[in-house]
Amino acid sequence: MLSSTISLKPNSNFSPRIHLFPPKFDIAQPKSRMASLPSFLGGLNLSRVAANMGVDASSAAASSDQSSEFCTLMEYVGKGGIDVGDDLVVLFGHLEYASKKIAALVASPFNSSLGKNVTIASTPSERDEPKPLDIVSNEIILSALRHSGKVSVMASEEDDLPVWINDDGPYVVVTDPLDGSRNIDASIPTGTIFGVYKRLVELDHLPVEEKAILNSLQSGTRLVAAGYVLYSSATILCASFGSGTHAFTLDHSTGDFILTHPNIKIPPRGQIYSVNDARYFDWPQGLRQYIDTIRQGKGKYPKKYSARYICSLVADFHRTLLYGGVAMNPRDHLRLVYEANPLSFIAEQARGKGSDGKSRILSLQPVKLHQRLPLFLGSPEDIDELESYGDVQQKVNPGYEV
């Protein structure tokens, strides 16, 4: 397993905050749009802000001091919220902690010097060559999961094999610790992707390496929870526990992730497609025909589509989740275990779809830890229309340098 020699401050970026008692509010109660006004904006003219937002000024003023109205991630998953169970609450508390450390790391003016302090071993052909931030992010997540006491296995895109953590942990975590790390130097959004499964207790009698691998190769239909963290102008943790998709935004003044996007529903159809158009002439005929058709507004949706492509999977998917459309990589590039399954689970919980161009992602049985495949995520009507063109998986792969 790859490791780093970076010294990380143990008390930085807020320790996990586990709420042992129910919160003092009803999560289902609608909140004022002005309730999220942070304290450091207290000098603003609330009447003017309220008028611009279409909110009554008196209610805005009253709500600006009601910080107790906020619903944090830990409160949402706890006994006063959807109550996912104590073990999963503890696990998410530590994932939350890890994501805050990674958010601070990717935003640090000193991360360019990490390469001097990280030893990178040779990389097998099945994995991309890691960046120093990949390795450090991997270590942050592994450390958090170890300290949670709730995880038996962690399988990471950055490791050749899963790491067996302990025999008693009820959960298995698969992760891409830092997706899009090649964009760090250009300050382009990056992200963390993770999925959570229950440990297969029927495999406990097997040798450690064998049971670690088999636990990590579970079908996406067995996911208990999945999420991603977007590191951008805001740090957003979007997660699903099998009952809808919800996004929480990090409040840097308190260290809490605040529920800002409850029950996300992807539009049935969007007007945006996200793909690297430079690969157009390597695409199969069906995919070229689909893109040409929607560009011209001649598809099932009679409006011309626009292209939006960041080349950061989490960022492109997050935009698609909110605005609709389709985000894709048509070649065998993205990993079924670490990326496609967790994101498809989130998409389906938001009433969207995840496909390899022919089949539902979650119906596929992984056979290798670093198994790659095409990935199409987005609005259900857009995915259905794309699949109707048949030949949309890119099999020509000349080996792109960028």
TrEMBL record:
This is fructose-bisphosphatase. Gene3D superfamilies: 3.40.190.80, Fructose-1,6-Bisphosphatase, subunit A, domain 1 (3.30.540.10). One of its GO terms (biological process) is gluconeogenesis. PANTHER family: FRUCTOSE-1,6-BISPHOSPHATASE-RELATED, FRUCTOSE-BISPHOSPHATASE. Residues 87-262 form the Fructose-1-6-bisphosphatase class I N-terminal domain. GO terms for molecular function: fructose 1,6-bisphosphate 1-phosphatase activity. Its EC number is 3.1.3.11. Residues 266-389 form the Fructose-1-6-bisphosphatase class 1 C-terminal domain. It comes from Coffea arabica. GO terms for cellular component: cytosol. Belongs to the FBPase class 1 family. CDD domains: FBPase (cd00354).
